[in-house]
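Researcher: Quick test of sequence recovery. Tokens follow.
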């Protein structure tokens, strides 16, 4: 029997939800609002109970600007640190680093505000907190955090041309000197040590690339989503052709995430008001087309289509506590927390046991 989704509602519009990935003891999620009225935004810290299948709000904090992205620190030691990426009404973008010392505090402790434009902040996936990557319309900056994260210094810049609106990116967890950033329809592979662009594909999607994510469990594996409705998988050693492409949604794909433990599971959200859970394990055995790209019918890979939203879904996130729980949020402020279907969970665990027991 499938457990129904747990529901939580916010008063204002929302574009982002992020798991507190360093919190391995609780299902914790941060949600930020998108109210254009000055000093009227909020951050909600949510907890999910599997036993009760219920979402509770542990804290609500005021935030001065629209919140477009939240980047929690992956370090267990610093699990209470997170950046908000914000946009002031008719003004600049930026990012602020906060720390919370206990969820019940009314006020957050503000550690640092970056004095530079920003559309994304990337933490080192290894949990090392002395370096962050800052992405804006002109490229990627490597920034060193100093004085217990109350100051920062730009250590290098990788420019991209032409400038891109709403770029995003990802830091390779298996190769700490590699990151990718998006440039409209293209993907750029960056060498963080040499501070240059190592490789690129200009037409990764036919419309804007909306999200990119590395597979932490498989080297060189990158996923991308686009406003063209497609999801693609890439080998970052050769970006000329995708390994896989699938028409995942009827409208823009707004976000995607690999499962942190079972990498065949991938989540996607879309402005078609859908969240979809996929199984891409067929990539290793599927039939390739003439371009050596696996292009399956979506029905081959789709595990579950979640159609309980009435508005665009902009963000999905796997829980940091265990790999079977995930959350999503729609533009009208509706948060849903789901669990992977039990029959799929059992199937994956049995497959893993067979691989472990194989001679």
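Model:
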């Amino acid at each position: 029997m499938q457990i129904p989704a747990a529901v939580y509602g916010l008063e204002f519009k929302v574009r982002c939800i992020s798991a507190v990935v360093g919190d391995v003891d609780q299902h914790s999620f941060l949600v930020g609002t998108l109210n254009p009225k000055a000093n009227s935004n909020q951050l909600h810290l949510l907890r999910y109970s599997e036993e009760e299948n219920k979402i509770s709000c542990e804290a609500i904090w005021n935030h001065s600007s629209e919140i477009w992205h939240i980047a929690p620190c992956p370090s267990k030691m610093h699990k209470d640190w997170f950046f908000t990426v914000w946009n002031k009404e008719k003004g600049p973008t930026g990012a602020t680093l906060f720390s919370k010392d206990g969820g019940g505090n009314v006020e957050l402790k503000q550690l640092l505000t970056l004095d530079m434009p920003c559309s994304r902040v990337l933490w080192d996936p290894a949990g090392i907190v002395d370096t962050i990557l800052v992405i804006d319309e002109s490229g990627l900056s490597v920034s060193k955090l100093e004085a217990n994260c109350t100051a920062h210094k730009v250590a290098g810049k990788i420019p991209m041309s032409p400038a891109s609106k709403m770029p995003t990116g990802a830091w390779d967890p298996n190769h700490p000197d590699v990151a990718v950033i998006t440039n409209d329809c293209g993907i750029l592979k960056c060498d963080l040590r040499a501070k240059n662009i190592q490789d690129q594909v200009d037409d990764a999607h036919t419309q804007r690339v909306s999200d990119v994510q590395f597979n932490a469990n498989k080297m060189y594996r990158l996923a991308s989503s686009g406003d063209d409705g497609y999801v693609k998988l890439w080998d970052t050693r050769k970006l000329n052709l995708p390994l896989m492409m699938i028409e995942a949604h009827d409208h823009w794909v707004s976000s995607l995430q690999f499962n942190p433990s079972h990498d065949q599971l991938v989540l996607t959200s879309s402005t078609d008001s859908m969240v979809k859970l996929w199984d891409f394990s067929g990539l290793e055995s599927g039939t390739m087309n003439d371009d050596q790209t696996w292009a399956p019918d979506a029905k081959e890979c789709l595990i579950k289509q979640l159609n309980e939203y009435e508005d665009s879904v902009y963000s999905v996130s796997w829980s940091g506590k265990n790999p079977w729980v995930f959350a999503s949020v729609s533009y009208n402020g509706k948060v849903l927390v789901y669990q992977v279907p039990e029959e799929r969970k059992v199937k994956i665990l049995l497959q893993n046991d067979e691989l472990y027991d194989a001679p």
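The longest strand covers residues 54-63.
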